Amino acid sequence: MPPSSSSVIWDEKHVKALLGMRRHPLRMIQVEPWQSWIKQRGGVSQVRQALRGSLLSPTQRELLDLILEHPDASVTFFGSKLSVSQSTYFVYLDDLIQTLLLQLNPEAALPAREAALLADASTRPSQSAHRLPAPLTPLIGAEETVAAVVATLQRPGVRLLTLTGPGGVGKTRLSMDVGARLLGNFRDGVFFIPLETLNDPALLIPQIARSLNLEKVGAQSLLDALKASLRERQVLLILDNFEQLIEAGSLVVELLQAAAGLKVLVTSREALNQYGETRFVVPELTRPDPGNLPPLEQLEQWAAVDLFVQRVQALHPTFALNEANKEAVVRICHRLDGLPLAIELAAAQVKHLAPNRVLPHLERGLKSLRDTSRDRPLRQKTLWDAIDWSYQLLPDAEKTLFRQLAVFGREWSLAAAQAVCETTDAQAGLDGLTDKSLARYASQGEDGDTRFQMLQAVREYALDRLEASGERDATQRRHAAYSLGFVEQAERAIGTVEQPGWASRIRQEHENLQIALQWMLDNQQTDMAFNLLGAVWRFWDMLNIWSETRLWMDRALAQGADINSVGRIKTLWGASWLAAHQSDYTAALALAEEGLQLARENGEKPLIGRLLQNVAEGCFRFGDNEQGILLIEESLEILRDLNDQEEIAWALDHLARGLWQRGERARSRQILQESLAIFRRMGHRWAIAASLRHAGRLALEEDDNDFAAGVLTESLEISRQLGAKQRISEILRELALIQWKQNRFDQAQQLLEEGLALAHEIGDRTGEGWALNWLGRLAIERADFALARQLFEKAQQLFEESGELSAISSNLEYFQQLELAENKFKNGAG
């Protein structure tokens, strides 16, 4: 009997094989269970056609068509066809694959349109259904353990499961496979969230929110926004390397109490000790008894031996177990307690020594270290000593490089290593460390350069050696200085065609910037932190990293309250804009006023010109339109004296909206076009998209629908390329209004639903509310009054959660319109 739908678990590589993409041959799906699954549905061509008809966004559908028509094309080809960079293409591809996974895996299928609208908006799955890293190597010898963990998590009563065990036993790698196996069990996704570079419990919630593409918008806290987002979703969170955040365990329980469909898998060297926690001790790899050796042909049935052999063969394909080396290999695996990482380190030495010679070196090395190594649990001591043994075999130059690399986060670039570490040839040193499994090639960076990483247990050992060497403070200082220089170089690209590329590089260096900020604040280098935050915040704004950025800014501003530097003024400027983005308008105005006063005291004319715009926006928000216009005009006078073209354009943009509110509509549109022309000359795509959207909104108010549709569509295309999700969601609602005005209700509903899903994905509760509000109005047009009432009620709940008083008032008006429509319909029917 062919397998049922529920027995087939599609993953990324098999979806790519289904699409015929290069390096994913069709033979991957010409085996069971995929072959029978596809045959039941009429063959590959029919399955592909069904995918084309699935609920895809226009961009996803365009990319799918390109892949199916040109399966062997290069990344360059797809990027040129979509008019995006290669890095953006990979983002688009990931979103497409995750959406197709939702279609192919029945447990993750999208609900029907009507059910989706009636359900809480938070139940809608995001386009990116999971965030699981791709393992670099296969999992060896842990199949039964994976199955046991999967079975435990599938039990209804288990919602918090902690995988415990020493570093190097394979908790992280195990959790990745468990997550992949459970993709079909969680409708709204499986998310792997690394925590190893964090040491402040306050960063846990921002890290989880960022991994879920969630940002708070409105009055609620980020924790409350996260609870609301997860409330009705079916999600598995994998929190990796939790041991340094144990104090935050209660926050995990809070999330679980708020979200019945949430489960959490934690990896940690110690349990969280929270109510409801289930613990699973990860076992070491099985290995034979050296005193009772099995026959040669049975040896690789033992997981530890199999791992050792495979890792050696990765370096020496001709290596094989034989009668001469089998005892040495077994003793190595036994001596290292079956810890996978320790075995990998020993296997790396076979490049230089035969197993029979590795064993005596290993024994002597570990014995000599026993008296000096730290007081650690026995299994942790084994791994620590194995790393130390590998370290002691390094040349002095590689030892220094190895120690100093520990200041980096999960990944780093060659250029960063060369700048931060005391080495004349970082490339040669990194090649040597990767050969010995003390570092790994991680990925290709946004700039095309190779990036490197250390496993967490190795990094911890390297940090210990760095501390003992007396080099830690100097190395961390160089790391902080390099990070500051990096973002200051990026800042110079703002307003140029290079800005999106730098935003991608800022994204990939996020953990290193976190580490640098933590060191700066811990070591009272507050003005250095101000300089970094002042330079980076506009990129973090582009990347929707608002809550965490405000957290860093709040800390720096509290710690450096007596500092009157340019960096502090820039931080106040950024904090004001980010607070406004999250609808925290009172805080936004207060921060802007403080920054403006300080800028005036210091005579910082560029910052005076910028902060006047922030204060003016506050005036517009709180109804003092005339004062806002006066402040913008003052800003323009200063900025024109400085010839600051970017800020002149932004000031004109703000002035146009103030004049519009005053009724000077012709002048407003003229000034907005002047602003847009400056941004176009600069090639400032982020600002072009914003300005086009503003022009579209004004045109909508004058019923100039054709012009509005043109500029909003252009803004949408640019915003999609830049990943500006909140703006995309807003534009989709505005384009839906145009369709509505032309009685194209189906097209309007499709745009509103896409905007609704995106608003939910980023945690924009107000945006979700407006989308539901408009969908309710559509329901009135169709005389579906019951649906309209339910949608208005859900919108009202979201507006109340976000504290948007004007939205609450508007929504109440539509309840009244609903009642009028119901009465009119009843009377007409009678």
- C-alpha end-to-end distance: 58 Å
Whole-number mean pLDDT: 84
User: What is the overall silhouette?
Assistant: globular
CATH top-level class of one domain:
Alpha Beta
Secondary-structure-based class equals: mainly alpha
**Widest sheet: strand order?**
1-3-4-5-2-6
Radius of gyration: 29 Å
Can you name the CATH architecture of one domain? Answer: 3-Layer(aba) Sandwich
CATH superfamily of one domain: P-loop containing nucleotide triphosphate hydrolases
Oligomerization status of the protein chains? single chain
For this structure, the CATH topology of one domain is Rossmann fold
Extract low-pLDDT stretches.
1-7, 107-128, 366-379
| Largest pleated sheet | 6 strands, parallel
The tally of helices reads 39
> How many DSSP E strands?
9
In short:
This protein is mainly alpha-helical and 830 residues long. The protein is built from 39 helices and 9 strands.
Defining key terms:
disordered N terminus; 830 residues; 39 helices; 64% helix; mainly alpha
